[in-house]
Amino acid sequence: MDNKRLVAVAVVCISVMSTLGSPVLAEKSKQESKNEQTKLESEKKTLEEEARKQDQEVQQLEQKLDDHYKEMNEQASLLAETEYKLELQEKKVKNLLRSMYTENYLYPLTQLFDANNLNDFVERYDFTIFFLNEQQRAVTELKETKQTAQEKKKTLADLGAKQDQVLKETQQKQEDLEAKITKLGKDIRTLKETEDQTELSDRDRTLIAPHDKVAKGSGQYMWPVGSGGGTITDTFGTRGGSHKGLDIAAPPKTPILAADSGEVSMVSSGGGYGNCIIISHGGGIQTRYAHISSGTILVKPGQSVSKGQQIAGVGNTGNVRGARGGYHLHFEVMINGVATNPSRYISR
To answer: The pTM is what?
Structure first.
C-alpha cells in the first residue's frame, strides 16, 4: 500500500474514531459526574450521621449546662445565706466589743485588780473569761464564714466559666457541621444540575428524529413567556459552563409559549428538568421548556404547534432554586442535540 493510500485510510479512521468517540467521551463524563455525585452523597450521609451524634452530644451538653445552672443556683443561695450569717456575726463582734468597752472589760487585769473581795474577784474572773471566750468564738466564726463565702464565690465563678465554655464549644460544633453539610449540599445540587442539563442522549435523538423530519419552523423565534414577561435570573454557560439554557423567572402557571412553529417531539417528567417539553422545528433544531408546572401541559408528542401557541405553564418541578419558590422557565435551543446560547435566537 503506497503512502497516499495509507494517509487516506488514516484520515478515514481518525474521522470514524472522532465520530464514535464524542458520545463515548460524553458518556464517560456523565459516569464520572455520577461517581462524584455518589461520593458526595455518601460523604453527606456520613456528615448527617455525625450530625445525629452531634445532636446527642449537644443534648448531653445541654443537660450538663442544666446541672451547672442548678448547682450555680444552689451555690448562689448558699452564698447569700453565708453572707447574711457573716453580716450577723460582724454585728455580734461589734456588740461584744462595744459591751466590753462600756463595761470596762477591754482591760481584764484592771477589772480583776479592782475587786473588793474574793467573791467579787471570782465573779469578775468568770465574767471576764465569758467575755473573752465569746469574743474568741465570734472572731473564729467570723473568719470561717468569710473563708466559706470566698470559696463559694470562687466555685460560682468556676461554674460560670465552665458553662460559658460548654456553650461556646456546642455552638462552634454546630456551626462547623452545618457549614460542611451546606457546602456538600451545594456541590451535590451543582452536580445534579450538570448531569440533568446535558446534551441529548442517543435515545432522545432517536425519539426526536422522526418529528424533526416533518417539523417546519419559520426560523424566527419569539420570547417563550407570555406577553414578554418574566425576569432573566440565569444565563447560558454559568455554573462553570454547566447551565445550558436561559432561566426566566415568572409567577406560577404563567403561560409558556412555543418559540416557533414545529412538532412536539418529547414530553417528559422527572429528573433535574422536572416536567419538560421538547419541540422540533426542522433542520436539527429543537427548543426545550423545563420545570413546567404539574397539570398545565397542553400538548402531546407528535402534535403540531404554532409559533406563540401556549403549551404549558411556568412551574418549579425538578431541580430549581432561587426566590419566589424557584418558579421559572428553563429555555434551551439545541442544534443537532447540542445546547447553544438561546440569547442568539430570542429577545423581548
So the answer is: 0.48
In the chain, which segments carry CATH 2.70.70.10? 199-344
Q: Sign of torsion, CA 125 131 132 134?
A: positive
CA nearest neighbour of 287 among 196, 212, 203: 212
Element (H, E) at 43: helix 3-102
According to CATH, the superfamily of the domain at 199-344 is Glucose Permease (Domain IIA) (2.70.70.10)
Distance CA 272, CA 265 (A): 19
User: How distant, in Å, are the alpha carbons of 177, 220, 259 from that of 173?
Assistant: 6, 57, 51
pLDDT digit of tens for each residue in the chain (348 aa)?
A: 444 443 343 433 434 334 334 444 445 555 666 676 677 677 767 776 776 776 677 677 667 667 766 766 776 776 677 677 667 766 766 666 666 556 555 555 555 556 667 676 666 666 666 666 766 776 777 777 777 777 777 777 777 777 777 777 777 777 777 777 677 666 655 555 544 445 677 778 888 888 888 888 998 999 999 988 899 999 998 877 788 899 999 999 999 999 999 999 999 987 788 999 999 999 999 999 999 999 999 999 999 999 999 999 999 998 886 545 689 999 999 998 889 999 999 988
Give counts: helices (H), strands (E), the chain: 5, 10
For every residue of 315-333, DSSP letters joined together read B--SS--SSGGG-EEEEEE
Q: What is the CATH number of domain 25-195?
A: 1.10.287
Residues of the chain with CATH 1.10.287: 25-195
Give the chain's length: 348
In whole angstroms, what is the distance from residue 98 CA to residue 101 CA?
Answer: 5
CB-CB contact of 233 with 307 (8 Å): no
